[in-house]
Amino acid sequence: MPEAQRKLAEQLRQEFGDRVGDPELVRDEVTIEVSPDELFAVMQSLKELPQFAYTQLTDVCGVDYAAYGQGEWITEQASSSGFSRGVQGNSFARRGLTGVYGVDEITSNTGRRFAAVYHLLSVTHNRRLRVKCFCADDNFPMLQSVVPIWAGANWFEREAFDLYGIVFDGHPDLRRILTDYGFVGHPFRKDFPLIGNVEVRYDEEKRRVVYQPVSIEPRVLVPRVVRDDNRYADRQAKEESGNG
To answer: How far apart are alpha carbons 19 and 37 in whole angstroms?
Structure first.
């Protein structure tokens, strides 16, 4: 780990101890995991304590880790000419990890499905920090809002709520921000069908656009993969070999 990141990791251990997970270096940025109960207090300290001084929140990203790393194209029976569609055509990523979205009850509740990832910047020390926090309840994901700490989190949290259904307790105005009025569901969840739930068409008799259940069948044409970023491949290899 480079010296600047190593120093930051040590400061985090000294200040927070077991309140945060062991700092890791991911994509050249120190990353820590915080429990939902500790999220607000830790974030407040990261902003106010002079050794950290993370006065700027640059982003909040929602993440759905359901079926993370699994694929629909893995097979040992492919023909010599290959195939153009996934062998698991109606799998978790297309028709629903836990059933068709909005129909079957979600039964899994590991507390490790939904997470919010916070990206912090300290202008004073010219360094960044990534903070990850998993929601305790998969069925009703909720985290404490950090809007009282960074006002700029307002729209970021609304986006995570809209796309992933993560509720931010204490948010001053938690409304959808990207989807249309009356939209049902959260489109970035893994169990939301890629084909959607409804389609629109123009009805000649009614002389207007009408909504109806989607009529096409889901097809897996593009593989879902966890990609390694080649921009960091050489650097990571040097660090692992001790030459970095």
So the answer is: 10
